[in-house]
Amino acid sequence: MPSRTIEREQSMRNKMLAAASIVVLLALPFVANAQDKTIQAIERYREMLADDNPAELYELRGAELWRKPRGSQQVSLEQCDLGLGAGIVKGAYVRTPRYFVDAGKVMDIESRIAWCMVTLQGFTAGEIAKRPFGSETYKSDMEALVTYVVSQSKGMKIDVSTAQPQEQHAYDMGKQIFALRSGSYDFACATCHGDRGKRIRLQELPYLSDPKDAGRAYIGWPAYRVSQGEMRTMQWRINDCFRQQRFPEPQYLSDSVNALIMFLAVNANGTVYNGPAIKR
Which domain covers residue 215, as residue numbers? Predict the structure, then answer.
């Protein structure tokens, strides 16, 4: 598997160079309709990358980890209840975040996997939070597990409920955090994603209160980041947004991050999930 990963990543880098040239050519400011051509070029760029997504290698590794006895209890995660019953993985992702009675809180899929690792396998929360995201020297088990689980919902519609009071509260809290201005730059999530027609560099910024834009943004994660050579989960994405806003870094799997994910997921309801995706 390591050699396959290297070959796949090299192929992706070559495609990035070819695709980037298309973006540059079509985004020339001298063209009258440069903005439309830029959007088209970026879509072509994404299509080229999607043909050869290394996420499937993480999915395979995640499937192995899911079935492997681990932790102090030396059991697998095959009895983990992701909301549809013990051991049922298919369709679980598109119905999270959700309120879990046994945990007494609203959890996204990553939080729930971590909870099962603690309660079933005997890991500690500290062990899981120590290195949840991969790097050049470390491959994250959590990112592989999440990739495996979410891939089992491919082709299904996002269907996140707010029927439970705790779920509605999480959504409302996420909506408030989305609009909260703070940090040294006085930024909020809404600074970038609270209006239509905004962009950063060549990238169009989704208006996340609009179901169509929210759906397109939400199903883009988890994703393989070519520039980092790693799978990245929604937990990582929200943490990185906080970093870019110069907010204090949230604790891993914090209630605030789960609330923001709930806000995004509910806004994306009805969108067909076709990930894991791939990003530049």
Answer: 53-279
The crossing angle, in degrees rounded to 10, of helices 141-151 and 109-116 is: 120
Name the pTM for this structure.
0.82
Per-residue pLDDT of the chain (280 residues), as tens digits, is 555 555 655 665 555 555 545 444 454 454 445 555 655 655 665 566 556 788 999 999 999 999 999 999 999 999 999 999 999 999 999 999 999 999 999 999 999 999 999 999 999 999 999 999 998 888 999 999 999 999 999 999 999 999 999 999 999 999 999 998 887 778 888 888 888 877 776 678 888 888 999 999 999 999 999 888 899 999 999 998 888 888 888 999 999 999 999 999 999 999 999 989 998 7
Give CA–CA dist 65/23, Å, rounded.
38
User: Count of domains in the chain?
Assistant: 2
Domain identity same for 112 and 237: yes
Q: Which two tokens stand for residue 210?
A: 């609009």
Residue 273: φ, ψ to 5°: -85, 125
Q: Are residues 100 and 121 in the same domain?
A: yes
Residue 194 to residue 172: CA distance in whole angstroms: 16
Catalytic residues: 241
**75 lies in the same domain as 162:** yes
Q: Identify the three-state secondary structure at position 232.
A: strand
Examine the domain organization and report whether 239 and 114 are in the same domain: yes
Distances (CA, A) of 68 to 92, 121, 135, 145, 196: 20, 10, 23, 11, 46
Give me the amino acid identity at 64. E
